[in-house]
Amino acid sequence: MATPFDETFDFDAATGDAEDNERKVRAGFWKKLGSGASRLPFAEEATAAYYCALDSATPTRVRVLLFGALAYFLLPTDAVPDLFPVLGFTDDAAVIAATLNMLAGHVTPAHREAARAALDRIRAR
Known about the structure:
By secondary structure, the protein is mainly alpha-helical. It has one domain. The protein contains five helices and no strands. The protein has helices at residues 15-34, 43-54, 60-74, 90-103, 109-123.
């Protein structure tokens, strides 16, 4: 008897969504951080995820998942709209944390170091 776990995810079929997520993330990530999100408690993790997603050494399936989580972070109208102070980013933090928890082995010290340096530059402005 077949179960849903017997099926494999067809990443090629999801390429359109993945490319759209990547485009959205590349276009809006730094703008969102520059608008104050760099001070959020999970900003460093989100930025490390961004660098990991851009890294060509990161497996495609991991990049797809990271870009999906980061695209959710950028959406102004998600499960809890970001317009609500503090509370609005809790769902974003949960999505980023869950994704990084599953993919922790792919986020390298170099990604984390680049994230800290980028956030230091943004916060110094």
